[in-house]
UniProtKB/TrEMBL annotation:
Annotated stretches, region: Disordered: 319-340
Alphabetic keyword roster: DNA-binding, Transcription, Transcription regulation
The name this protein goes by in its record: HTH araC/xylS-type domain-containing protein
PROSITE patterns: HTH_ARAC_FAMILY_2
TM helices/strands, residue ranges: none
SUPFAM superfamilies in the record: Homeodomain-like (SSF46689)
One annotated GO molecular function: sequence-specific DNA binding
Domain of life assignment: Bacteria
Taxonomic classification: Bacteria, Bacillati, Actinomycetota, Actinomycetes, Pseudonocardiales
């Protein structure tokens, strides 16, 4: 962690500059108003790859990875930069790119690059970086070269998945959930391989293998966003991903489940989470079930009891010995006769 708040304001910029110059990928920075500069750089090693979160304010600063710095330390890594707020302008491999909020780019730290970063309207800038070995991308060199220093698509498709995973990794790493962040980083590398291949039109066995894993992630994300839709079905999931239901079922079979089984399990888990959440104590079981796509009350109760060994009412923290919530209306979602 490099944090200018750890030192007095007069030496804050020098403290930050010195920290970056001694990092695994040394860089130099310049700032026209060093006396006003504040920044925090948090880096977390995830085993093979690392993630970093950078926040700065209030003014512009410039960053450079020069030939001299490369000669001093060249670990042979790429860096993915996701710009969250403010703007980041870079010159790398003969390309000029300006990243706005939510945009990203790929850099080869074995080659020089120069950048200028400016905060957003709130006078604060923030970005996330993922650093990975060259060997982590099993792609032809020309495929990677076509992406270096360019703005990569990040609004939808595989680009949207890359962006979402980067942000989730940052959240988990910041919370100290290193194992979870490490697992997500493995998924991110698969998606990144496919994304770069799509951008360049490249195909290979490694890309196809990563493609199947990426499709699995994409389908799961699609289902998670639509769990509250009672009409969510294998047919609509397959159609949304331009594949047959048979192909979709085969994908799920590789993970020892079915499409319908996965949807049901995810809905039940969301219901269980809400039933256990004190913040939803005033929400009826009926409303929770309906919110997560269960339109048939009896079916929901049977499925919940099969999955968790108790009825939805018994799952609530304030449930009494008879399975009723203390002080609650007892008829709100009672199982039908014979279902207890």
């Amino acid at each position: 962690m490099i944090d200018t708040d750890d030192v007095d304001a007069g030496s804050a910029f020098d403290h930050f500059r010195d920290g970056l110059s001694r990092a695994q990928v040394p860089m130099d920075i310049r700032c026209a108003t060093p006396g006003e500069f504040h920044a925090r750089h948090r880096s977390v090693d995830l085993g093979g790859v690392s993630t970093a979160s950078v926040l700065w304010r209030p003014g512009r600063y410039e960053v450079a990875r020069t030939s001299a710095l490369i000669s001093r330390s060249d670990p042979g890594v790429y860096r993915v930069l996701l710009n969250l707020s403010g703007t980041s302008e870079f010159l790398h491999q003969g390309r000029h790119a300006t990243l706005g909020a939510g945009e990203m780019a790929l850099f080869d730290t074995s080659a020089p690059f120069f950048g200028r970063r400016a905060p957003g309207a709130d006078r604060t800038g923030r970005s996330i970086m993922l650093t990975l070995p060259h060997t982590a991308l099993p792609l032809p060199p020309r495929t990677v070269r076509t992406a270096l220093g360019a703005v990569l698509p990040s609004r939808s498709g595989t680009g949207g998945l890359v962006r979402g995973l980067l942000q989730e990794i940052d959240v988990r790493a910041g919370a100290g959930e290193i194992a979870a962040a490490h697992r997500l980083s493995a998924a991110l590398l698969d998606v990144l391989v496919v994304h770069l291949a799509e951008c360049s039109g490249t195909t290979s066995p490694a890309v196809r293998e990563s493609g199947e894993r990426t499709t699995w992630l994409r389908v799961r994300a699609f289902v998670a966003e639509r769990l509250g839709d009672p009409g969510l079905s294998p047919e609509c999931v397959a159609a949304a991903h331009h594949m047959s239901v048979r192909t979709l079922q085969r994908l799920f079979s590789h993970h020892n489940t079915t499409v319908a089984g996965w949807i049901r399990a995810q809905r039940l888990e969301r219901c269980r989470h809400d039933l256990l959440d004190p913040h939803t104590a005033a929400t009826s079981v009926r409303a929770i079930a309906h919110h997560w796509g269960f339109s048939d009350q009896a079916h929901f109760t049977r499925a919940f009891r099969t999955a968790y060994g108790m009825t939805p009412l018994q799952c609530r923290p304030a449930a009494g010995a008879d399975g009723q919530r203390v002080g609650a209306q007892t008829q709100e979602f009672s199982p039908p006769p014979g279902e207890e």
